[in-house]
């Protein structure tokens, strides 16, 4: 089994945080999004992973530190790491084909801005599985259309008329991903574009036209990290899941509490100092932060920050930030000083 992870996008909707850090490496509940996604997929697949292929963007943004982090992630999971580059943002289908040397055998393709809770029961009769989540507003999503056998017969993007309420979440399994590769090569060779880009959906449509059987897999939870508001919400939900799972070491032993308290669930990293502060619930704080006279809940704070005299809720703060202010629901990028 292989895992293919397209992650070349710049994450413009999550600015200013993605000006300096690729979106898949933003930490949620103390761990980068892509690390948590890949680990969860490996866990639920419950079978050996031969290779994990990461499709990155410009080396100036996805540099050696990113490559080293992803390589270590794969190796820790017993897999070979393969690194590919998508030099131009030409769509999901194009991104996958940037890793064409790895497109053989059974594989899961997973976009790196999504977190899930699921049980991956792979249907042995299916040539492919598309994971979906039941949603309240299907007109806002790409959805699947099913036949009487519960096989997927069509992918419909943001339907004006009701098709189904099963939204595609961006995780796919292919019994032989080489079949998808051949269809995507046809898409590229014939310049088949939608919205000016080469899309994975057109490769999937080609497979369906040739009689390949697609089934749905349903996730119990689908968490997005597309913008600041949903990333903070995902952090809150993930902390709750980790606490329910009995996750240990969510609060580092090096945390110093000076007339302060922590209301769980929280993730608090190494060498954090809390002075006259209340943290939680639903707060993640990275390493080497100092908070003084702060009340914070439902927020995501990264590393090496100094925060004073504020009351934060639904906030997202990057790295190396100095903040002393009255604003409550802030979004502050790396290396900012607001006093």
From TrEMBL:
<feature type="domain" description="Nucleotidyl transferase">
    <location>
        <begin position="7"/>
        <end position="230"/>
    </location>
</feature>
<dbReference type="InterPro" id="IPR029044">
    <property type="entry name" value="Nucleotide-diphossugar_trans"/>
</dbReference>
<dbReference type="InterPro" id="IPR005835">
    <property type="entry name" value="NTP_transferase_dom"/>
</dbReference>
<dbReference type="Pfam" id="PF00483">
    <property type="entry name" value="NTP_transferase"/>
</dbReference>
<dbReference type="InterPro" id="IPR050486">
    <property type="entry name" value="Mannose-1P_guanyltransferase"/>
</dbReference>
<protein>
    <submittedName>
        <fullName>Nucleotidyltransferase</fullName>
    </submittedName>
</protein>
């Amino acid at each position: 089994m292989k895992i293919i992870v397209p992650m070349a996008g710049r994450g413009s909707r999550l600015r200013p945080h993605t000006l300096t850090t690729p979106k898949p490496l933003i930490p949620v509940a103390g761990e980068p999004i892509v690390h948590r996604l890949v680990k969860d997929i490996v866990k639920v697949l419950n079978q050996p992973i031969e290779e994990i292929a990461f499709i990155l963007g410009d080396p100036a943004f996805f540099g050696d530190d990113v490559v080293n982090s992803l390589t270590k992630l794969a190796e820790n999971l017993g897999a070979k790491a393969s690194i590919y580059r998508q030099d131009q943002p030409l769509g999901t289908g194009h991104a996958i084909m940037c890793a064409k040397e790895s497109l053989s055998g059974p594989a899961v393709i997973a976009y790196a801005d999504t977190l899930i809770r699921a049980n991956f029961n792979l249907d042995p009769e299916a040539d492919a599985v598309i994971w979906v989540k039941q949603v309240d507003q299907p007109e806002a999503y790409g959805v699947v259309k099913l036949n009487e056998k519960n096989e997927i017969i069509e992918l419909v993007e943001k339907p004006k008329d009701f098709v189904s309420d099963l939204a595609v979440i961006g995780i796919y399994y292919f019994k032989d991903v080489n079949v998808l590769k051949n269809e995507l090569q046809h898409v590229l060779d014939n310049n088949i574009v939608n919205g000016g880009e080469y899309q994975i959906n057109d490769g999937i449509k080609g497979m369906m036209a040739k009689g390949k059987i697609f089934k749905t897999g349903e996730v119990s939870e689908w968490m997005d990290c597309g913008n600041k508001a949903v990333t903070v919400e995902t952090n809150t939900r993930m902390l709750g899941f980790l606490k329910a799972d009995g996750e240990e070491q969510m609060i580092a032993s090096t945390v110093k509490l000076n007339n302060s308290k922590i209301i769980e669930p929280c993730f608090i990293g190494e060498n954090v100092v809390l002075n006259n502060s209340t943290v939680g619930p639903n707060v993640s704080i990275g390493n080497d932060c100092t908070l003084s006279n702060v009340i914070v809940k439902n927020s995501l704070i990264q590393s090496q920050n100094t925060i004073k005299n504020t009351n934060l809720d639904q906030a997202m703060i990057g790295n190396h930030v100095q903040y002393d202010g009255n604003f409550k629901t802030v979004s502050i990028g790396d290396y900012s000083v607001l006093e």
